Amino acid sequence: MIIEKAVIDDLEEIMKFYDMMCIELGKADFLPSGNKGGFPSEEMLKDSIFSENLFVGRENGIIMAAYIMNNTSDPAYKNINWQTDAPDSKVSILHALRVSPLYAGRGCASALLKHAAETASARGQKAIRLDCIEGNTVPHKMYASNGFKYMGSADIYYEDIGVPRKFLMFEKLL
After folding, report:
1. For the domain with range 2-173, which CATH number is right: 3.30.420.40, 3.90.79.10, 3.40.50.920, 3.40.630.30?
2. Across the 174 residues of the chain, what is the mean pLDDT of every consecutive 10-residue run?
3. Do the beta carbons of residue 96 and residue 72 sit within 8 Å?
């Protein structure tokens, strides 16, 4: 897998990738009423491309993985006792890390996390933080095995889910 910054010419393919992932995730028990779709939004994807915060993983030229990393978090992040008290501008927030199920079990998510840590470190960041919905146990274990520490839980409302849910909060110091 080759990981690179997304460019605007990738937008249509990235939208199709995330739409497919919403359908896949919608099959899981941990999401209320199945697929809510629409995350990340086209606007978020465009903003992330232009700010150089969207990264894609390709194999044979096809986008098969992606993530967004910026400094924007839900207000609930303020209620967590993090390992570092670095200002928001020095903490990267990982969003929408996804790997196509066709490539599951091959270490792609771990490769994305390694890339994210290297990128954040090169940008002078002190930590990476993320939230992951309760019940989605596969990524919980994957984050822990890649050096992320569970820091607590918070109730968060995300529009694409439609109802407040409990999210597990993770942090990796850089």
Report:
1. 3.40.630.30
2. 97 95 75 64 95 97 97 96 96 96 93 98 98 88 96 89 86 98
3. no
